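Appendix B. Chain record.
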Amino acid sequence: MISTAIRVARVGSAAELAAAALVMLGFPCLMLAALVPSVPAFAAAAVVTYLADHYLHRKGSYLINRLSKVRAGLSIRFLIRQLLLVLLLVRLSLPGHAVLYGAIACFIAFYSLQAPHGALTTLIRNRRKMPVATRNVDLKSRIRIPDAPPRRLLHRSAEKMLHLDLFAVAGILVFAGLGSAVAAAAGIGLTLGLGCLYVLLLLPYVRGRKIPPKGEAVLSAIDDWLAAYRPETVLYFSGSRNSAYQVNMWLQTMERLDARPLIILRERVILNNLAPTTVPVVCVPGGVHLMNMDLSTVRVALYAANVGKNIHLLRVPTMKHVFIGHGDSDKLASVNPFSKVYDEVWTAGRAGRDRYVIADVGVRDDAIVEVGRPQLAPIQAWEDVPEALRDAAGEGVPTVLYAPTWEGWDGNPGNTSIVLAGENIVEKLVQADPPVRVLYKPHPFTGTVSAEAGAAHRRITALVEKAAAERAADRRFASDPAAQAQAKTELDRIEARLAVLAGADGGKGDEAEATRDGVVDIERHKEVARLRAEWNTAYWRSFPAYEHRVITGAEPRLYDCFNVSAAMVSDISSVVSDFIASGKPYAVTDSAELGVEEFKRQNTAVRAAVILSNSAAELGSLLDAVRAPAADPLAGDRKELKRYLLGPDEPKSIDQFNAAVADLALKSEARNAGQRSQAGAAEDAELATALPGQRSPAADDTDGATTP
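Structure tokens predicted for this chain:
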């Protein structure tokens, strides 16, 4: 029942649900205590509402956001509590006492301070929100960007300001209970004094040298940097916070480009969720600002997603535009008709080319280039996995990864196995004999569209956690507590060092300060990469090799899960195509029940897979391949399919990718040279046809008149 209430209220935990209930019940209790009247009861209810409200705000509760939508926002709740305190004084037969008038005057004056406080905080935030935010771009030498105000002044500023009424409320309650007018006066004085002080502390940040430069100066500095840096290849991305992984997967590839790279983002939220990189990053939310940027040296633009904002860069004719996507699969999204707006579409292997031919959505065959998948380099075949990771993966109890995709937007039952087959798959895996370990890593979008998918995910999570608890109590499975303790100590050390390195990046500032100081330290970047690799090894060794796990969040990454797994179960998505790079056995669920032959006909990536029905009855074939690799009947098919989907192993994918960039850059330059030649020829023709005694208008002629 509690879990149902948590889902309905959209809160994160039972504690959050309890705090929400206390807020809802606390205000009626305040009114009742004021009417009785009872000072102790009122004080107790006030403490409860203060603490519960603060807890919900600290958690960023969904309910708190909803209250503001029904005119019960933060300011209203504080005002109601203060009015009820005045009611308490009236009910205590103190209508003519100076403290009553003082309380009323205090709360009126206190609320009069809210307007300048809110105006100042809004003005500071707006002025510090520059038209462009960057990383790894040297703006510090070009414009002066002052330090951000102390975080304690702006972070949750409205809540902090309103909580200054605590002194007045406490003092008035002391007076109501004990008759001490001095306590009331002191509380009222502190509330008003601190409120005025808060407003005064904000004033310096809206004047003088504490104000960041205007937008025109920032944009001019960006153009000056672009002219000096001369970017040649751009990775362009626009999307929601949850889609940041789509651009993050290309960062290492951009770092390894031969051409000078630049990343252009359109949303600040993507910049905030961007993984560390050495590539210069420019976030330009405004379309007009982007279209006015000087990108004349860029010859190739790469697009990782088909979104409406792409048009703002697609309109630039001096560069060639390429769709590279964010995964290679047989989903309809992989053959989006929108792709025909690009000069070229790059696919991993021959399968991508054939996919467009079959779909017949207007993408020309000569516009398709096979470049491999350079971001798959971290995926390793089992024999290439380091020994430390193989030990952690537990060769005696092989690991099977269940990585279903999400439900999608269209309600197609074939999108994900999680609803119709997920529980069957996990039940059979946790009950397998000989045993296997299950890693369950759902797609981060799971449950965002379909409540049914969200419910299935929670049931599968509970199933995995229950099986893990049962296995931990099973004496057949032995662990090494000393080794696990050592690994956990190593994890703590690595995480502490990563925290220090993250703090050294100046993360305490705001966006403007991050733009000023956000030039990556190459040595620190290398150290972070090394530490993350060490963290991954320590993570897998920090718990028994037989322990089932639910893995969510950014770490460990999907490819890390690939490397410790002997096999995978998934759905039609780029996850399958990526896993094929490992050469390991895999199974794919036919959730739409098309039948094996039709399912394989429609989906290239499953041609070397074990095909599962929703009952998962065929799962035994996958487990047989794990236990006896030499007798695996699909091993040869997987090798052939890997080449078809992902291209040849040689030359390396990054080399193919660099060659494709260079080739397209030459085409772009040839086009631009042709345009310049035509423009020159047109100008010569105009001069040749000019009447005797006339000349063509010069750039500095104001009316186009000629001179004799």
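Further analysis of this model is presented in Appendix C.
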